[in-house]
Amino acid sequence: MAFLCLQILRLPLGVNQFPDSTFWQVVSAQMSHAAWTGMTAWDLIQPLFMFMVGISLPWSISTRRASGQTTGEMWRHAWWRSFVFVLLGLMLVSLENERTNFEFTNVLTQIGLGYPLLFGLALTRVRTQVVVAVFIPVLVTVVYAVTPEGWQKNSGPGAAFDLWFLNLFPRESVFSGDDGGYTTLNFLPSMVTMLLGSLAGEWLRSGREASQLLRGLIITSAALLAVGLALDFTGLCPSIKRIWTPAFVLITGGLMGGLLALCYWLMDVRGWSKPFELLRIVGMNSLILYIVLRLWDPFLPDFVSTHLGWNILSFLPEAAGTFVARLLGVGLLLAFCVWLHQRRIYIKV
Fold first, then answer.
1. Where are the domains of the chain?
2. 193 to each of 75, 140, 154, how far by Cα in Å?
């Protein structure tokens, strides 16, 4: 979430001012989504968000059971949560439209579509969850592999489904394909990303010794990463974030599991939590931060420029003043999270 806040800085635009700079070319590439195949640092934000949803689920279920909620009550809450996520996602993609833009490919709608399945699996045995976590990627790989040009943009089974499904809704014009190649059915393999997070959460709650927990996280993450890279390098299943291919699921799952192991070692084992307090505060209000960022992204730096640009920032060169205004905009967003935390305000669904 802290990384997502950096979009306010518009770092990819730096390459326009320094076209010959290798540094800015790398920054621009890593702060933008991959055009199709491959992966950048920016491509990890949505998987991390979804992985985090999965990690929190075992604790959520345990807390609700301890409070006396029945399975039926938890199911009603799961369906309500799914509905709200989809509704919020549609709201955000429709901000600049005159009518509802029925697209289901952003992170909130994808979480909403996959959440009931994730919740249902979280109530089953770990063995069942592992079987499903293997079965869905295998099924997706086979279906796309046997489809002519299945891995190409707007030509696979996901794109074919959207040509039918999205045109069932009232639209300003007929849907003929997504510009970025994203598809609604991404929610199935992306649900596996959440499921991997849920399995990791169950593992951390298992009561095992810290060394065993770390070893399990590291070995499993390395295996996921190795298989995902092998699928990608052999061409059997390329890593494509925009259609959430199984290789992308495995590679990101391995990276996120490794990051989780690192965070667990630093904060829970070594006790070095203080340096990461701001990150914890940001993560505790991730939903409201995501929504506010989408709503206020252009407003925050413009707000700073309006009130400071004509005086405090006026002595800086134009490019530097613009960058500082954006940096202060990020600061305002983080300060908002701290303000919420100090008042114990946490927006949840």
1. 40-272
2. 21, 14, 23
